[in-house]
Design a protein that fits this description.
heterodimer; A: alpha/beta; elongated; B: 5-stranded antiparallel sheet; 5-stranded mixed sheet; 55% helix
Chain lengths: 225, 451
């Protein structure tokens, strides 16, 4: 069971987030100030941390910077009420691994925590496999079982990203940020359209579906059971 | 001691200084002019006398000299006749002034005046001439007159300066009092205008008067401020309205749901709708904050050289499936060599926003075209579509926050997209142009200096 340190000074937000994470099977430790958070980060050996940007005492960015200076590499997700582009860039530069702007959907937070906890391992493998699905990163080809799948480059990129994170919920915002590198996209169903195309190619009419839509949240790639 | 206000003004100080300086300069000029003309007159009369005496027959020289000396009530004339060996023959000069050049021009030198009992050294203007028989004639004149002139001017200054000083203080004081009064008037008028909600203007009468020019400048500034304030108030109203609409929906939905929902599924769908409504409100607030953030984007340290073709191709790539679904053709004609200095994230956002709009508003079988080209020394990003376009009277409004040309607030997306684009373009120092009428063309022009 993964242990998460949540450093957040607003007790109501902290309690709601902690309850949600506990329900989802995480062990949550709370810290209400920067100093307490830094202590618990050093002593508690959490698997990952969720750090609010604005904290009494020591602010979130300083915590991350301090920990990185002490060679503590625990993954950190920074929460911020400031949406400024440069703020985000600074957060990531100071050693944050992901950045989420308040207010956020709980499901978005959970998806990002999962993603940080299960970051794909660097491999020299040139082929990705999920169930019957196989992606050749050298040949740039895809096949499901015996069936060859013709993918456009953008579809290939999307599938590659999903196969590296199979069984994980990937939100629309995550996909836009990671696959297309866009932080601000007009509120449209863009990702759904792309996903629809990909699903049409991956899940043939006879096949059990592998790409699943999680309503109101995002998408999961899963091997058929 | 605290000096009265008008004395402390720069106008007053500068006037006083200027008057005092001009008196000094004027006196110096008078002295110099009068002195030099007096000296010229003196030199002429000396030279003339020397000529006249040299012209008389040798026997009458002494008499002539003595006549000349006798007719000198002011005791300023000097003359001397000396033998070839320098011995004094006649006149009141003790000797030939040692530094006097014989047969030269009139010059300044020292001479000794001999009277019955006294000998006196004095400054003179003198000329020496050697006569045909070898005698030396010296004619001189005491130059004390010039010194007297200087002394007279000095006295005049001494007497005049306090008068002139007082006068200058009075003039300076008067001028700065007038300025002060005008400033106080302006101050009161401006205060009145601010109280009256910026609706009034400063009075202007005489176009040549500096204060009226100032008033005109201030008035044009007030015009600008009034427009901004009005716009801000309107924006505030629009924001309030745009927030109130979804919030009202959420509230009504929750209220009715609380009473009418009988199953958990009912309650869930009520909650889902409420969340969607709140998300809409949040999207508006996020866009507003983005807008503010872009408008206050600090330095240009985040700028780098960006190959725009790649950026625009990505935007195409992102929107292609959606365009296909809508049966809209999406094509690009991009010059790969073009590199522009910009913030790539922001410019990408602007391009995507324009493409998003174009794809959204173009009906089936229409066409959206992206072009990147060099035109007349500028780089032009052009996104054209075959949609209904923007009405001429809507164009300005479209760029303002929250406005949506169709005036219905039901369609997808909040009408902030184009205002964001406008803000991003402005931040870069580029220009945004929107065509009116059907077949909309949006152009971002980047001047070559930015390229």
């Amino acid at each position: 069971m993964a242990k998460i340190l949540l450093i957040e000074d607003d007790s109501e937000t902290a309690d709601e987030v902690a309850a949600e994470l506990t329900e989802r099977g995480f062990e949550v430790e709370l810290a209400a100030s920067g100093i307490e958070g830094l202590d618990k980060a050093r002593s508690g050996k959490p698997d990952m941390m969720v750090v609010d940007r604005m904290l009494p005492g020591i602010d979130g960015l300083t915590i991350v910077e301090t920990l990185r200076g002490e060679q503590i590499r625990t993954p950190v997700l920074i929460l911020s009420a400031l949406g400024a582009v440069d703020d985000r860039v600074r957060g990531l530069r100071m050693g944050g691994d992901d950045y989420l702007t308040k207010p956020f959907a709980l499901i978005e937070l959970v998806a990002r925590i999962e993603a940080l906890l299960r970051r794909p391992i660097e491999t020299r493998e040139t082929k990705l496999r999920v169930g019957p699905l196989e992606l050749d990163l050298i040949e740039r080809t895809a096949r499901r079982g015996e069936r060859q799948i013709d993918l456009l480059p953008r579809e290939f990129r999307l599938l590659e990203y999903m196969m590296q994170r199979n069984d994980q919920l990937l939100t629309r915002a995550m996909l836009l940020e990671e696959v297309w590198n866009y932080k601000f996209v007009p509120a449209t169903n863009l990702v759904d359209v792309h996903m629809g195309r990909l699903r049409h190619k991956v899940d043939g009419p006879e096949d059990p579906p592998m790409i699943h839509n999680v309503r109101g949240a995002g998408f999961i790639l899963r091997a058929p059971s | 001691m605290r000096l009265p206000d008008f004395v402390r003004t720069t106008t007053f100080r500068w006037t006083a200084i200027a008057v005092a300086l001009s008196i000094l300069v004027f006196s110096a000029f008078v002295y110099w002019e009068a002195g030099s003309s007096m000296q010229a007159d003196m030199d002429d009369s000396i030279a003339e006398a020397a000529l006249a005496i040299a012209a008389v027959v040798p026997e009458r020289r002494i008499v002539t000299i003595e006549d000349r000396l006798a007719a000198d009530p002011r005791r300023i004339r000097l003359a001397g006749l000396f033998g070839a060996d320098g011995r004094r023959i006649a006149g009141n000069l003790g000797e030939i002034p040692p530094r006097l050049a014989i047969d030269g021009r009139v010059q300044a030198t020292q001479a000794i005046r001999m009277d019955a009992q006294t000998a006196e050294s004095m400054s003179v203007r003198a000329i020496g001439r050697r006569l045909p028989d070898g005698q030396v004639l010296v004619i001189a004149r005491h130059s004390g007159e010039l010194q007297e002139l200087a002394a007279a001017i000095g006295r005049a200054l001494l007497l005049g300066l306090p008068v002139a000083g007082g006068l200058s203080l009075a003039i300076g004081g008067l001028l700065s009092l007038r300025v002060q009064r005008r400033v106080d008037e302006l101050h009161a008028q401006v205060g009145h205008i601010v109280d009256a909600g910026l609706r009034e203007r400063l009075p202007t009468a005489n176009l040549d008067h500096p204060f009226d020019k100032l008033a005109i400048i201030a008035n044009s500034m007030l015009d600008e401020i009034e427009v901004l304030v009005t716009e801000m108030a309107e924006t505030g109203n629009e924001i309030a309205h745009d927030l109130r609409t979804p919030l009202t929906r959420v509230r009504v939905g929750l209220e009715r749901g609380r009473v009418n929902a009988t199953t958990a599924a009912d309650l869930q769908s009520v909650a889902d709708r409420a969340i969607a409504g709140v998300d809409e409100v949040l999207a508006i607030i996020t866009s507003l904050l983005r807008m503010r953030e872009i408008e206050h984007y600090g330095d240009r340290s985040g700028f780098c050289d960006v190959a725009l073709a790649g950026l625009m191709r990505e935007a195409c790539d992102l929107y292609e499936p959606m365009a296909e679904d809508k049966q809209v053709s999406l094509c690009a004609d991009l010059d790969d060599s073009i590199i522009v200095r910009c913030d790539s994230d922001l410019l990408r956002e602007a391009v995507i926003s324009l493409v998003d709009n174009a794809v959204k508003f173009t009906p089936a079988h229409g066409r959206v075209r992206l072009a990147l080209a060099r035109e007349a020394g500028n780089v032009v990003i052009r996104i054209s579509d075959t949609g209904p376009g923007i009405r001429a009277d809507d164009r300005e409004a479209v760029l303002r926050r929250f406005y949506r040309a169709d005036k219905s607030r039901q369609s997808v997306g909040v009408g902030l997209g184009l205002s964001l684009v406008a803000a991003i373009v402005k931040l870069h120092g580029f220009r945004l142009a929107l065509s009116t009428g059907p077949n909309c063309v949006a152009e971002i022009t980047c001047p070559m200096s930015e390229v």
